[in-house]
Write a structure and sequence with these properties.
Length: 252
């Protein structure tokens, strides 16, 4: 069997197809296997100087780069969860506040301060608040009932008084509720005449500014001191309790 060198497509020096005949270079036994020829590729040979075209040199490919590890294009950096999200022109620079902005802000601040000062000047005085969360049983058929006290630390005359109370009782027609001022003036807050066991309990929410309010006689008295709430159960059948009460007093 003969080993034949294939004709070269180009002749050395002129770049044209060769017209030379094929030459036999050696003889090998017929039983021998043909030898496979393949070009040798050295990937490291391309990591040196750039090619003549001016492009950067080629190195070995890398397939372990993280997702999205690519050069950031100009503009705003990506903000999304996938490549290419969030690109666009950079946001405009924040505007600086000029003297007009500072002037407007100052005028608004002065107006707010003036309004607050006017409200305080017109309202005057002070506000005294007292709350009692004491839960006290109401004795049956006892004219003394149960009394709870709230002490207000302040001065001035009462301009307005507001009272709230919560009483648990199955039949509220048995009850009489009285508020006693620090000067000892009693005013009746509740004396129900129409009630039902289907609607147990008594909730009070009274203000002296309401026309016909039972609290009106307390206006003008001294606000500071001990305010007492008395609850009397005049019938010895059902039992109840005072669950809490409070009052707010505005003074001059």
């Amino acid at each position: 069997m003969s080993t034949v060198v294939p004709p070269s497509p180009f002749a050395a020096g002129d770049g044209e197809q060769s017209s030379q005949p094929t030459a036999v270079v050696s003889q090998v036994p017929a039983s021998a296997q043909p030898t496979a020829y393949a070009p040798t590729f050295d990937p490291t040979a391309y990591g040196g100087a750039p090619p003549a075209s001016g492009q950067p040199g080629y190195g070995q490919p890398s397939y372990d780069q993280p997702w999205g590890a690519y050069p950031t294009p100009p503009g705003q950096p990506p903000t999304g969860a996938y490549p290419g999200a969030g690109y666009g022109p950079p946001p405009p620079a924040p505007r600086k506040r000029g003297w007009i902005g500072w002037l407007v802000g100052g005028v608004a601040l002065v107006l707010v301060a003036g309004i607050v000062g006017t409200v305080l000047l017109l309202s005057g005085g002070s506000t005294l608040i007292g709350v009692s969360a004491n839960s006290a049983a109401i004795p049956d058929a006892d004219p003394a009932g149960v009394t709870d006290t709230i002490a207000l630390d302040g001065s001035g005359q009462v301009q307005n008084v507001h009272v709230e109370a919560s009483i648990a009782h199955p039949f509220t027609c048995d009850l009489t509720v009285t508020l006693i001022s620090p000067q000892g003036t009693p005013v009746t807050l509740a004396d129900p005449q129409d009630c039902s066991r289907a609607n147990p309990g008594l909730q009070l929410n009274l203000d002296s500014t309401t026309p016909g309010s039972p609290l009106a006689p307390l206006v003008g008295q001294q606000a500071g001191g001990e305010w007492r709430l008395q609850v009397v159960d005049g019938v010895g059948i059902d039992q109840g309790q005072l669950t809490g009460w409070g009052l707010t007093v505005q003074t001059d």
